[in-house]
Amino acid sequence: MNVLTENFHTYAEGFLGTVQLTVYSSVLALVLGFLMASFRVAPVSSLRVFGTAWVTVLRNTPLTLLFFAVLLGLPRFGLVLPFKVFAVIALGCYTSAFICEALRSGINTVPRGQGEAARSLGMTFGQTLNLVILPQAFRSVIPPIGSTLIALAKNSAIAGAFSVTELLGTYKTLSELGYNVVWTFVWIAVGYLVITLAISALFHLMEREWGVAR
Amino acid sequence: MTGAATALYDVPGPRTRRRHRLYGVLATVLILALLAWILYLLFDTEQFTYTKWMPFEYKGIQELLLRGLGNSLKAFAMAAVLSLALGGLLATGRLSEHRPVRWSATVVVEFFRAMPVLVMIFFIFVALKVQPLPALVAGLTLYNGSVLAEVFRAGVESVERGQREAAFALGMRKSQVMAYVLVPQAVRAMLPAIISQLVVALKDTSLGYLITYEEFLHAGKLIASNLDYDLPFIPVVMVISPIYIGMCMLLSWFAGWAARREQRSPKTEAVEVAPAEPGTLLPGGGAPTAPRP
Asked: Is residue B290 part of a domain?
């Protein structure tokens, strides 16, 4: 217990680091994922190819390799940014592929007749998508996006191993101070549970509010 | 393209087709420009010099890379076999009729699914002072085994109720019902999800790099930090990532192939290939048929 109380500051710093990483990468992943999903259903074939390639490659890339390439590779091109930004880029791009697939399968769950009805009312592509399809797709993508973001929070632990301040990285500081390693990890685990449970609760709320009535 | 996607817009007329072609050309030009810019950057920072690519000609370096790849695959094979076994065990526990067994299995599954796999690996490596390979394999096994347990359970539960009832009506015991009726049908239906989870395990073997296990990425890092070859970091990434991504893609493709084959097979008609429910107690679940992050 005293591992936590005596090092509350270190833990809080790590915890906030993980939360920050999770939030920023989630935003990036949602934006990029939405963009890629719209590329993948677009009528322009080169955009479709680009979206498909993006998703296929990133979904099959080990995240550690991506971190390795982004955090240690991009500086070779003269792009020098804080490691945290690189970590957000790597996590965000990686997760965007999964968000894209979740969104796309969400679009596919909307019955075909909805799109046809919208078109027969004379709506344009943009109107069909924004007024008819996406609001309905949104309802069914809440749970998959929730579990993707939970996975993102868990994956952010890898950033700690690349010397970004976050929760898992705190074990190093504390074990150097000579604290019991087991208890250090217990509190790290609790920290991750708090974050993943919070995301899960948030998405449960959203699901109750807007989810598909079953 | 899928049905709903094409239902989004009408069959384009001549003017729309012309407009789409214009967009297509613009988008192609933009994407090509992006690729050209990356290529320019690669040349500009002198990534294609002979010194940087020279190491890949040496036998020793090639052997180093191959050994790394072998170690990665070894960890993957061990983790895959063990997590399938653990998954089977935990799924049996979760489907048990004895309440204490069921509850303890549930707690184990939900806990290990909610923990980042890297935290477990680090815990085993740092706190229990285990060698890198067993630590990596143990971490991967605990995580993937728990996820697979959920996959198996969902698979068994998704077999149509009549099958179970008919088997019981024939006088089979529960173990017989499981072994002869439910599991064979469930495994067939769940094969794609199982393979997708193995892709996750394969991808996660690269976490071994972080605990100094001498796997593929570690071998790459050794070469990349060699001053004699002018720090060939980008060439190393350009060699390693296609191999890694190729292996995972192959396995993912296999999962997709199995899924397509399932849909045509009359043997799985009794099974609705439904994704497992996301974790109710603790988060971390997701549709197991889709590759997971």
From this structure: no
Q: How far apart are CA B286 and CA B277, in angstroms?
A: 7
For chain A, how many structural domains are there in total? Answer: 1
Q: What is the pLDDT of residues B241-278, one digit of tens each?
A: 999 999 999 999 999 898 888 777 766 555 555 444 43
Which domain covers residue A126, as residue numbers?
A: 2-210
Are residues A62 and B203, on separate chains, in Cβ contact within 8 Å? yes
Mutating which of A58, A64, A112, A168 best tests the B interface, going by the most B Cβ atoms within 10 A? A64
pTM over 0.90: no
Q: Which residues, 6+ apart, have CB-to-CB distance to B155 below 8 Å?
A: B186, B187, B189, B190, B193, B271
Q: What is the pLDDT of residue A53?
A: 94
| Residue B3, domain member (yes or no) | no
Chain A residues closer than 8 Å to B283 by CB: 146-147, 150, 196-197, 199-200
Examine the pLDDT at B77 and tell me if it is beyond 90.
Answer: yes
Residues of chain A neighbouring B140 (CB-CB closer than 8 A): none
Q: Quick one: B92 and B26 in the same domain?
A: no
Q: Which residues of A touch B37 (CB under 8 A)?
A: none
Instruction: Give yes or no: residues B59 and B40 share one domain.
Output: no
**Out of A45, A77, A161, closest to residue B41 by CB:** A77
The enclosing domain of A153 has a CATH number of: 1.10.3720.10
Contact across the interface for B115 and A77, Cβ inside 8 Å: no
The pLDDT tens digits of the residues spanning B100-120 come to: 999 999 999 999 988 899 999
**B258 within domain boundaries:** yes
Number of residues that make up chain B: 293
